[in-house]
C-alpha cells in the first residue's frame, strides 16, 4: 500500500465526521515526507523539536507543523518562528514561555491544552482541576501572543476498545462543558474549537467521540522501527 492510498483511505473514513488528519511524520525520512506533501496533505506532526526543525528546513513552506510530543520550555525558541499548533501544553510555565517566544517572533501561536485521560502513570497532561486553575490564573489573561484553540488527549496504550472509548468520552465531556460554559473566553485568548484525540489504532473511535483532529502515523507508513 502506498502512502498516497493510505492517506486517501483514512481521509475518506474521516469525512463523515468532518475530522481532519494530521500525518505523524516522526522517524520518517525526508523522502517519505515529500511523498506525503505531494498528496496534498499539509498537516505534519512531530514529537521531537530537533527533528522537526531539521525537516522544516527541507520541506516546502506550506507545511503546517504540529508539535504533538512533550515540549520542554528551553526548546520552545527553536519552533516559535514557524510552528502551526502546539498540542502538548501542560503547564502555565510552558505557556508563558511560548507567549514570550511568540512575541519575539511577532506572531500569535495556537496551542491546545493536553489533558490526562489515560489510566497510566507515564502520560503527560492536566487533570480537570489543573485545567481550571490554569485558565483562572490572573497571569494567564496577560498571555496576549498565544491562543488556546482546544484540548488534546492520549488514551491508554491498550487494545481494550471499551476502555479507550471511555477515555475519549471523558475528554469529550470536558470539551463540551468548556464550550457550553465558554470557560476562559472572556480573556479573548480562548476558543474551544479543536479536540485532538485518536491515533492509528483508534482514530475512527475518536472521530465518533467528537475529535476534530486525529494524529496518525503507523497506519500510513507502517510500524516505526
Ligand atoms: C507517535 C504519536 C502519534 C501517532 O502514533 P501512531 O500509532 O503511529 O499513529 C500520535 N500522537 C502522539 C502524541 C504521538 O507521539
From TrEMBL:
InterPro entries from the UniProt entry: Ala_racemase_N (IPR001608), PLP-binding_barrel (IPR029066), PyrdxlP_homeostasis (IPR011078)
Keywords attached to this entry: Pyridoxal phosphate
N6-(pyridoxal phosphate)lysine found at: 26
Domain Alanine racemase N-terminal, chain residue ranges per copy: 3-224
Pfam family, one: Ala_racemase_N
Source superkingdom: Bacteria
Record-stated family: Belongs to the pyridoxal phosphate-binding protein YggS/PROSC family.
Name of protein: Pyridoxal phosphate homeostasis protein
